[in-house]
Amino acid sequence: MLPHKTALVVPSLDDARADPDFIDAAKLQAGEGGLIILSEARTAAASTILRDILPRSFVCDTSVLSLPRLNRLMQGANENKAPRFGLIVSNGYGLGHVARMQAVANGIKQFGPVAFMSFSAALVDGAFYLPSPQYLGLPDEDARLYVREAALRFINQFEPTHIMYDGNVLPTGLLAALAQRPDIHLTWLRRGQWQSDIDAKYMAQQALCDLVIEPGDLAETYDKGPTWQHRLEYCPPRAFLKTKPIRPANPPMLSRETVLTVLRLNPQDKHILLMPGASKNAEDIAVITQCAEAIKQNGAVPVIAHWPMAHMQAPTVEGAVVIETLPIAPYYPAFDAIVTAAGYNTFHEVLDAGVPVIFIPQEDTGRDQQLARAQWAVDRGLAALCRRPALHLLPELLAHLEMPKPFKIEWQNDWSEITKAMNVGNGLVSSILIMPPSMPNIKILKAMHRRWLSKNKPFHTHFVLALNIDAQSFLKKKIDRTSVIVTNSIDPVQLRRAGYQYLWLNGGSDYGVKRQFANWLRLWRPSHLRSI
After folding, report:
1. What is d(CA 56, CA 334) in angstroms, rounded to the nearest whole number?
2. pLDDT tens digits for 314-362?
3. Residues 6+ apart with CB under 8 A from 502
4. Considering only CA atoms, which of 106, 111, 105 is closest in space to residue 86?
5. What are the residue ranges of helices labelled H in 1-55?
6. CA 195, 200, 203, 207: dihedral to nearest 10 degrees?
7. Which residues contact 441 (CB under 8 A, 6 or more apart)?
8. Out of 6, 289, 463, 531, which could bridge 526 as a Cys pair, Cβ 3.0 to 4.6 Å?
9. Sheet holding 211-214, edge to edge
């Protein structure tokens, strides 16, 4: 269980910036954990102010996080409602998001109705489908509005109690829709192994989630990116669930004879499956061609797996077979070897299949750390590695490829663990501080005193902070009459009659109260400060 969330609500961060005690208040509120700062100011400006001072905080505005949703986020999910799960699938390079969410749907449907909203053309049937903003080429603001309206339509139609999103970044349009529906619980299903050059601030979106689920990754100890170094920073959610590897929802494995018959392959030939990953440019196509030629040099038939929804056609290689069969995992045992990229789903599935494997990781920007995964498998004798700049070595690797060590993966199968985690947090104490608050904050005034002590020579005067307390309750405390009473609520006449010296803090804004207090510090120079 991670540190509880804390939040700071600032009507205008630009105004708070002028308040020298604002940062002290934010630091006190954050403590050792993170801090959500909700502001009506421009997020970019707010981020600039706080980047160095509060590096573990997440700054957002009311367009993506309403105050009602922030309050609900702190309180946890409503367990009184029968669960209804809305699963939202992003549009990635390949099929990973779709396959993973379909597996989750199959696992949790026993606990409540499930509906899909999909931005991927790989999941159209039975889903609320829209082309992704990236596919449509929408600019950022139009994309935000497009996703917000789509999400609201999906929510209004299905009325989910829980939304689960699988993708690398939470769309601001989805967050904007949920700002209008504070009752809905948000789970972010995001894999690890982010590239090390990705700015860790993207991890801060965890602050807006009720739950973050990170699917188990065999190679997680080789993760050098923000998903390992900063996974608990940036105001982490009160709940973080690390599962076992999630196996895509695939039919059972097929026999070699069945595969050869279905794919119309000659049983007398040696067949090597080539799965280079989703192709997005001419370099990817060139890699496929070079790998296919290397397979042919070893006397085998290259069988190229091509995704039907890919925007680029598979290359034409003489003697190669192109298949568009999905899902493809049930066909793995029929091949003599597999040459593949190391995306999350493929990596785990091919290692579990017990077939000789050569990983050719995709290392371009936007992918996860496929090289780290491949190296993990190589170090354990489970696979071979051939990076793209060394593809000229592929024929030799294929010639000496051996059966891997026996290895089986323990997949995630306790789906009640996930549904139970979706309601985690009820009854936990989290805090929201409104800036400026309607009443003075003792922690802030004490922080001001500590800071003042480091710069001034104090007298022997003692201050006692007696805020928001009535005279009768105060007199029962029997405070030493050598102390100066700093108050905003005790009747001054009764204080004088009881023989106390006092300082009166007038009502008004929090900023004004702190200004008065700072002036009293300079005049009276107290050496000790306590509160009741």
Report:
1. 50
2. 778 888 999 988 788 999 988 999 999 999 999 999 999 989 999 999 8
3. 484, 485, 486, 487, 490, 492, 495, 496
4. 105
5. 13-17, 22-30, 43-50
6. 180
7. 25, 433, 510
8. 463
9. 127-129, 114-118, 85-89, 162-166, 185-189, 211-214, 240-242
Judged against a pLDDT cut of 70, whether residue 121 lies above it is answered with yes
pLDDT digits (tens, 9 = 90+) for 71-120: 888 776 566 778 999 999 988 666 778 889 999 999 999 999 999 999 88
d(CA 174, CA 90): 11
Residue listed under structure tokens 């010639």: 399
Q: Is 77 exposed, middle or buried (0-12, 13-18, 19+ CB in 10 A)?
A: buried
- Residue by residue, DSSP assigns 451-485 as HHHTTS---S-EEEEE-S--HHHHHTT---TTEEE
Query: Are the CB atoms for 230 and 52 separated by under 8 Å?
Result: no
Q: Tell me the CA distances in angstroms from 354 to 329, 359, 406, one per residue in order.
A: 12, 14, 7
**Residue entry with tokens 């499930």:** 114
Residue 184 has a CB neighbour count (10 Å cut-off) of 21
Element (H, E) at 321: strand 321-323
Q: Does residue 122 contact residue 345 with C-beta atoms inside 8 Å?
A: no
Cis peptide before 327 (omega within 30 of 0): yes
Q: What would the pLDDT profile of 244-282 be if each residue is shown by its tens digit?
A: 999 987 788 888 899 999 989 999 999 999 998 776 678
- By the 8 A CB rule, do 197 and 222 touch? no
For residue 25, what are the CA distances in angstroms to 35, 40, 43, 510? Answer: 11, 18, 19, 11
Residue 495, token pair as written in the block: 């204080």
Name every residue whose Cβ is closer than 8 Å to that of residue 123 and which is 6 or more positions away in sequence.
89, 98, 101, 102, 116, 129
